[in-house]
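pls read this protein.

:::
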Amino acid sequence: MNKLKGWLGGFYGYRHLFQQLVEKDIKLKYRRSFLGYLWSILNPLMIMIIMVAVFSSMFRFDIANYPVYLIIGQTIFNFVSDATNQAMWSITGNAALLKKTYVPKYIFTLSKVTSSCVNTLFSLGAMLIVFIVCKVHFNWYMLFIPVIMVQVYIFCVGLGLFLSQATVFFRDIQYIYAAFLTAWMYLTPIFYPITQLDFQLMWMIKHFNPLYSFITQFRTIVLECTMPDPRLVFYGFVVSFAMLFVGTFCFLKNQDRFILYI
C-alpha cells in the first residue's frame, strides 16, 4: 500500500510533465498537416468506405447497418493498435532524457497511451457522421460508451507497459508484435460476423479475445439499443485489470535495469 501511495504521489508530482508529453505527441502528429485534426475524422471515414465497398461485394453478410458495424470495430482496434505501438517505444525513444535526470519511467508509456486515446476521441467524430448518415437510433444506453472506452484504455495501459519494458531488452518485439497484430485483427470480428466461424474458433474468440468483449459491448448499445450483457462487461473489466496488473508488475520489476540497455 505504501508503494502504491508512493507511485501515485510520484505521478502527481510529475503531472505537468505528463500533460506536456501528451500535448507534444498530439501536436507532432498533425504538424505541417494542411487539414490538421480533420484527418482524425477523414482518415477512418475513407478507410471505412473502402472496406465497406470491398467486403460488402466480396462477402454476403446478413448484417444490418454494416457501415456502423464496421466503423465501431475499426475504431476500437485502431485505438488498441496505435496506443500499444506508440507505447512500445516510449522508453527507448526517451533514452536521452532518462540518462540525464530522474523521471518516473511509466510516465512516458502512460502519455503515449493517453495521447492515442485523445486522438481516438477526435476520430469519434467520424463515427458520429456514420451514425447520422445511417440513421442510427440515439438512445440513453449510449451514456455507457465512456465506460467501455475506460476498459479499453486500462487494457492498453497494461499491454503498453508490458511491451515497453520488453522492447528495452528485446528489440525484435516490434516484428513479433506486428505479426501478432495482423493475426489479432483477423481473429476479431471487425468486418465479418462471428457467426461465420466454426463453433470451436467462435468459442475461443469469445473467451480469449478481449477486443471481442469491447467491440460487442459497443455494438450492442448502438445497433441493438440495449445494455450489453453484464457478463460481457464484467469480463471486459477483469481482462483489462488483469492486463494492467501483469504489465505494471513486469514494468516495475525491470525498470531499474532499463538504464543498462537504452
User: Anything to note?
Assistant: Residues 8 and 54 are 48 Å apart (CA to CA). The two ends are 30 Å apart (CA to CA).
